[in-house]
Structure formats: C-alpha cells, structure tokens
Specification:
It is found in: Endoplasmic reticulum lumen. By secondary structure, the chain is an alpha+beta fold. 12% of the residues lie in helices and 15% in strands. It binds calcium ion (2 copies).
Length: 369
C-alpha cells in the first residue's frame, strides 16, 4: 500500500528494517518541478517503516521494528598521532548575521523568516569528514555504524551496479530512485560490491546522526548548530543565495558538486562528477570552507522545526527535542528542478538513525583542535 510520510512522500517496498533518510534533497522547488512532482526523496527515507514490500503494497500497517541505538556509547578520545588524520580547522570569528530568508526557495522547509542571530567564535573543519578520517576513527575505536547494525542503507539507484539493482525488490514509491540496499554502508557506499579504496578523500557517507556525533566527540569536537553552519556557509556575505554569491555558475564556472541534467535519469556530470567528489575539489568560500553546499549533505546538532522566532538570538541551538535532525547544504544529487537546497538558507531533515549515499557531516569546536 502507499503510505504518505511527512508532506510529500510515500514509500513502498521495504523490509522490516529499512533506513530512513528523511528530508534530504526532499521536496521540490516550487518554481521548477512539474506540478505534483516530488523532491529527490532523500528527505523521506525513514527507518521506522517507511517502505514495504513491493509485492505487498496494499498491506501492512504494522510498525517497523524499533531500532535500538548504541551509537552514543562513550568512546576513547583520539591520540595526537591519530588526530593528524583530522581536518584542518579555521576560525570562524563570531558576530551577527541574518539567518534564513524572507524569500524562501522552499517555504515549507521553514527557511524563513529572516532573523538576527549572534554567534560566538568557533572553529570549523574546512572540509567534510572523509572516508579516510572515518576509517581512522573506526580502526582506533572499533566503532560500528548504525547502517552496519541495521544491515542496510539507502542508495541512489543511479550509482548501483546492475547486479545489485536486480536483487532489490523494494523502493520508495514517490522517489523510486532510492533503494534500501543490504550491505550498503560507509565502507560500501554504492552497495555491497563497492568499496572506498579509490575514494578515501571523498566525504564519508551512510553515517547516521549518532555516528556523526560519535566521530566528532572522539575528535574532541562536536556537530555545528544550524546557526553556526549557516553563518559559516555564508562566508561573510550578506543575504546571498550561495556561499560565493547569487549566481550559480559565475563566469560559467562550477562552485559546487551538484547535479546537471535531468534528475533522476541523466546526470551530465558537467561539473566533473556524477557522484561525490574528493573534498575541496571546488573553490572555498570567504571563510576558507569547502563544499558547504553540494557534495554531501551535512548533519547539524539541531532538532528540526519550521517555526522560528524573529526575536534576536544568541548562539541558538534549536528546539529542545524533536523527531528529525536538521541537515544543510544539499548534495551531488541536488538540481533546481527537484532539490533547490544547495543554498545557505535551505534546510532539510532526517530521523537521527537515517543514513544514505548522499549524507555526511563535518565538525566544529570552541577551541582549535
Ligand atoms: Ca556533479
Ligand atoms: Ca557539503
């Protein structure tokens, strides 16, 4: 049967334990997608029963198995030599900025209203956490990600091999390009027959929110708040769409790893990449930060809400509780026609135990690490 989730999505075809990545490049851009179209759907893939067996679409209202999380267990901190693997950080000098926008590309996402936010200074990784860095963390701590515990994760159909694709009997109804793939994990980002050997410098994928928190905690860092992330994204520019300004491709140049072509069927790879790119492949913003939009979505520490006070806030941390966590920046799958979320004010959400082939993170800290 079809079940609607959140605002736009239905999911069918699933096993009892399926990841749910909710909110990602999710809903469509109102000015581009055809009437009735949905987003890329990565925002609505949920582990809590969002998919059902294809052959049984009219059945089952049973709640899916609850995932028991063990991801926030205390881990030993990294030693100095292990931390050499970690990202370079840059000081983001505190100040005030206008968060959100009064001209939202996707109003339903709570991009507005624009409000004044004051932030203290902090340090931020200049890049998304890479496979190599995550591998270092795992080799030291023995950490097992939630996707590995579940045994599956969501993979974009376009990057699966034919043999793996042919074995899959489930999909997300309104976003059938998202497939729950057994054996997909950070070590096997395109499915069980893939590996990270040739992409150690790419962003780690298939990490849940708790996995990201575990990594940052081990590195004596933390996830950024949404406000910190957005302030950093803007790179000192005021009220611009992108980290570099208002034009997507100034002078014909690409400034982020996004999708060119017709989503989801044809990716021309005009920017040089049809999947993730090595971190720092595109120009840094004014703060020296790379890939703030595009490449991989990035988890933040905030719970999701679409309601924001216009009162001035100092170091806001979002709602005290919620169902989904905020993610920012869009991914290599984002195209204006389906996922106009590669803007600094754009946002989306996922349940914390979600993971997928376009979702990663970076860390921040109060002190230099
Ligand atoms: Ca691309
Ligand atoms: Ca990114």
């Amino acid at each position: 049967m079809l079940r609607s989730f959140a605002l736009f999505f239905f999911v069918f075809g699933c096993v009892s334990k399926v990841l749910c990545v909710q909110g990602s490049c999710g809903t469509r851009s109102e000015d581009a997608a055809p009437q009735g179209a949905v987003g890329c759907g990565c925002g609505q893939l949920r582990r809590d029963g969002a998919v059902e067996p294809v052959e049984d679409r009219t059945a089952s209202e049973e709640p899916a198995d609850k995932y028991s999380r063990g991801a926030n267990e205390r881990l030993p901190e990294g030693r100095a030599d292990e931390k050499e693997m970690q990202s370079q950080m840059v000081l983001i000098t505190g100040g005030e900025f206008l968060m959100g926008t009064d001209d939202p590309g996707i109003p339903a996402d709570g991009e507005g209203p624009q409000r004044l936010v004051l932030l203290d200074s902090f340090y931020m990784d200049i890049q998304e956490v890479t496979n190599q860095q995550f591998q270092s963390f795992v080799s030291v701590t023995g950490y097992v990600t939630e996707a590995e515990k579940f045994g599956d994760s969501f993979v974009f159909e376009g990057i699966l091999s034919e043999s793996v694709k042919n074995q899959i009997t489930q999909a997300v109804a309104a976003a059938p390009w998202w497939l729950p793939v057994k054996g997909a994990s950070w070590k096997h980002p395109d499915g069980p027959d893939s590996n990270i050997t040739d992409r150690l410098d790419h962003p780690v994928l298939h990490v849940s929110w708790a996995d990201a928190v575990a990594y940052c905690s081990w590195a004596n860092k933390r996830l950024p708040t949404e406000a910190e992330w957005e302030y950093a994204c803007r790179g000192g520019l005021k009220d611009r769409l992108y980290p570099w300004g208002n034009k997507l491709n100034p002078k014909g140049q690409h400034y982020a790893n996004l999708w060119q072509g017709d989503f989801p069927n044809h990716n021309s790879g005009e920017d040089g990449y049809i999947k993730t790119s090595p971190v720092m492949s595109f120009p840094a913003n004014g703060f020296g930060l790379y890939d703030m939009v595009g490449n991989a979505w990035e988890w933040t520490s905030d719970w999701w809400t679409v309601h924001h006070s216009t009162d001035q806030q100092h170091n806001p941390t979002g709602p005290p509780s919620g169902i989904d966590k905020v993610k920012k920046g869009g991914s290599y799958m984002c195209h204006k026609s389906y996922c106009y979320r590669y803007r600094c004010a754009a946002r989306s959400q996922n349940t914390p135990d979600s993971s997928a082939s376009n979702l990663g993170f970076r860390c921040v800290s109060r002190e230099q690490r």
